[in-house]
Amino acid sequence: MKFAIISAGEGSRLSQEGVRLPKPLVELGGKAMIDRLIQIFIRNGADEVVVIINNEVPQTKAHLAELKKSVEVPLRVVVKTTPSSMHSFYELSPYLKGDRFCLTTVDTIFHEDEFSRFIEAFKASDKDGVMAVTDYVDDEKPLYVGTDENLGITGFYDSAMPDAKYISGGIYCLTSRAIDTLERCIGSGMSRMRNFQRQLVADGLKLEAYPFSKILDVDHAGDIVKAEQFLSGKI
């Protein structure tokens, strides 16, 4: 199984708030966020890790070049600036075809034990995708996830709905069928990951929600402290 990280954003909000490091290299508990993710992926059975970074941050590129020398699995780095996370996913997709894979963004923060159970659930599932969700809302623009009584995903919404107890956690386990949908989305000029997710439902793919207790994103300087507290069990 392959694992992929979208890390092609500029991290402009962090830099405007005085954070000097590029977002992937921001440390939580003394460890760069991108290193933390890669190590978690390896511990959860990654055969290969694929990362996309933008071509405007040489510091991140140099860091990953060094990291490739010491990690236990192949680490592929795609260097390209893209207009959206969905386009970043598209650039990664040629390396994910033909295999089950897990995709997330570099600033998605979660507890590893929950993530491990999530990966095992996907491996045992016959669904086209299993997506991490949470009822903990700490997002500026949450994507609400509609589910049925069996946690089958019925829709994705920009605002709260009666059948949407959860929001998207931004961690996606998918099969190659999802890449077919992605390619059609790109071909039609669509953008944004949430629109891709809506198209998965429209295309009839069977998706299941997997609840996490909490999932956080690091978008602002204050989120770094919050993420460290979360990982240490203080919140």
Characterise this structure.
The model has no long low-confidence stretch (mean pLDDT 95). This protein has one domain: Spore Coat Polysaccharide Biosynthesis Protein SpsA, Chain A. It is globular and about 45 Å long. The strands form 3 sheets. Strands 1, 4, 5, 6, 8, 9, 10, 11 and 12 form a 9-stranded mixed beta sheet that branches. By secondary structure, it is an alpha/beta fold. It contains 8 helices and 13 strands. α6 packs across α7 (193-202). The two termini are 32 Å apart. A hairpin with a 5-residue loop joins β9 and β10.
- What's the number of structural domains? 1
The SSE string, one letter per element, is EHEEHEHEHEEHEEEEHHEEH
First and last CA, distance: 32 Å
By secondary-structure content and strand pairing, the structural class works out as alpha/beta
What is the residue-mean pLDDT, rounded to a whole number? 95
Topology:
Layout: E1 2-7, H1 12-16, E2 27-28, E3 31-32, H2 33-43, E4 48-53, H3 58-67, E5 75-79, H4 85-92, E6 101-105, E7 108-109, H5 112-124, E8 129-134, E9 144-147, E10 153-157, E11 166-174, H6 177-187, H7 193-202, E12 207-212, E13 216-217, H8 221-231
Parallel strand pairs: 1-4, 1-6, 4-5, 8-12
Antiparallel strand pairs: 2-3, 6-11, 7-13, 8-11, 9-10, 9-11
Helix pairs in contact: 4-6, 6-7
Sum this structure up briefly.
The protein has 235 residues and is α/β, with parallel strands linked by helices. 34% of the residues lie in helices and 26% in strands. It has one domain: Spore Coat Polysaccharide Biosynthesis Protein SpsA, Chain A.
